[in-house]
Amino acid sequence: MTLDRAEAFDAADPLAAFRDRFVPADVVAYLDGNSLGRPLLATRDHLVRFVDETWGGRLIRAWNEGWTETPTTLGDTIGRVALGAAPGQTVVGDSTTVMLYKVARAALDARPGRAEIVLDTENFPTDRYVLEGIAAERGATLRWIDADPSAGVTPAQVAAVVGPDTAMVVLSQVAYRSGYLADVSAITAIAHRAGALVIWDLCHSVGVVPVELDAWGVDFAVGCTYKYLNGGPGAPAFAYVASRLHDEARQPIQGWMGSADPFAMRPGYQPATGVRQFVSGTPPVLAMLPMRDMLDLIDEAGLDAIRRKSIALTEFVLELSDELLAPLDVRVSTPRDAALRGGHVTLDHPDFQELVPLLWERGVVPDFRHPDGMRVGLSPLSTSFTEVARGLLIVAEELGAGHRKKAA
Fold first, then answer.
1. Under CATH, which number does the domain 45-298 receive?
2. Marked catalytic residue, from 38, 177, 227, 390
3. Which of 9, 375, 385, 390 is catalytic?
4. Please, are residues 126 and 104 in contact by the beta-carbon 8 Å criterion?
5. Mean pLDDT, rounded, for 138-163
6. Residue ranges of the domains in the chain?
7. In 212-355, where do the E strands start and end?
8. CB 255 within 8 A of CB 279
9. Is 123 strand, coil or helix?
10. What does the pLDDT look like over 193-234, one tens digit per residue?
11. What integer best gives the mean pLDDT of the chain?
12. pLDDT above 90 (res 311)
């Protein structure tokens, strides 16, 4: 019955045909699309063409034929397709860690006289570590929000800690563990009323949850591109800097490619105008190629349709968890209200750390997050309902076998 229901959902799925655009995966169920998206068939062809024609044919001349501008041209595409951002505000390059450092330092310096940074205990380690380092560098104080590990940061919690000393608030739109979907608009407005700037980490939302950075009045945002944007392992991150801040925000890593005239190579650093100033070193042109194909796919499918399927997939995971896994003492650590949930579901059980490697051996690929969470990450354009059903049936089988072994 479980598989029959899944197959019926797939038959009615308006996005089902998009699955054929991806390189076939030799697995039963890939349930980790929120960590590393699958490659597209078009990407394989485009990489070969790039080596043979653009890199191989044009050689260094290609820098003057578009490569130099890729951080901003690709940034504009991400902004249009996935961020609700007008042109000239998004730039691609570096890792999420480096991009976060840049915008956080810029935000702190743009609020002189304020020395408090608001963050939460459940944010991704990179975010917390970067901000701890900046606080130590700049003599700032960290104000911690004690977030519920099974939920996330609420507007009321932010309102309770921001004040006249708050320089910036740094949060994730979708919590990396629980999948909680924060109210970006409300929290941003609360921070602004206190005179603070806001940085949003979009790593677990870009490409799967509709985002409206301009409409929400967001100041800064960062995000990776190897999850739902399918840029590949180590693909460069992006940063969004609202145009109203371009004249006052100054990033701290002054590299030649972010200068006003990189090839003049004159003494003294003069930043480029606009978001280009947030570039530092040579753009990773080759690493930027794969995400273009996924952005085209997202543009074709439409983010609203992607979000609808994402909700349907996560609802199906919750249903199957209740039916198959709850009797085996599995707990759901993700909000059941779709309006509060991103694109993944976290299931908790004390045996999951040892179980996940066994699942991988059987071709079911979720991931594990301490202390006892198994994340089921669902990339809507590449994931079928049948895949989800087959994967969770095997989870139930392995977990049940473990229970029986312990009982014996």
1. 3.40.640.10
2. 227
3. 375
4. no
5. 96
6. 2-30+302-407, 45-298
7. 220-223, 238-241, 331-332, 344-348
8. yes
9. coil
10. 999 999 999 999 999 999 999 999 999 999 999 999 999 999
11. 96
12. yes
Closest CA to 295 of 231, 241, 378: 231
Active site residue 227: yes
Mark whether 375 is an active-site residue. Answer: yes
Q: What is the mean pLDDT of residues 14-38?
A: 97
Active-site residue identified among 9, 22, 101, 124: 124
Question: Tokens 């700037």 label which residue?
Answer: 197
pLDDT tens digits for 54-78?
999 999 999 999 999 999 999 999 9
Is 299 tagged catalytic? no
Catalytic residue among 101, 226, 316, 385: 226
Residue of 382, 376, 238, 397 lying closest to 317 (CA atoms): 376
Distance CA 6, CA 10 (A): 6
Q: What CATH architecture applies to the domain 2-30+302-407?
A: Alpha-Beta Complex (3.90)
If you average pLDDT over residues 139-151, what whole number do you get? Answer: 95
Which residue do the tokens 């994402």 mark?
310
Q: Is 124 a catalytic residue?
A: yes
Contact in structure between 313 and 382 (CB atoms under 8 Å): no
- Residue 241 structure tokens: 């800097």
Query: Does the annotation count 337 as an active-site position?
Result: no
**Using CA atoms, how far apart are residues 277 and 262, in angstroms rounded to an integer?**
11
Cα–Cα dist 364/397, whole Å? 12
In the predicted structure, residue 40 carries a pLDDT above the cut 90: yes
Q: For 59, what's the count of Cα atoms within 13 Å in the CB-facing half-sphere? A: 0
Q: Are strands 367-369 and 373-377 parallel, antiparallel or unpaired?
A: antiparallel
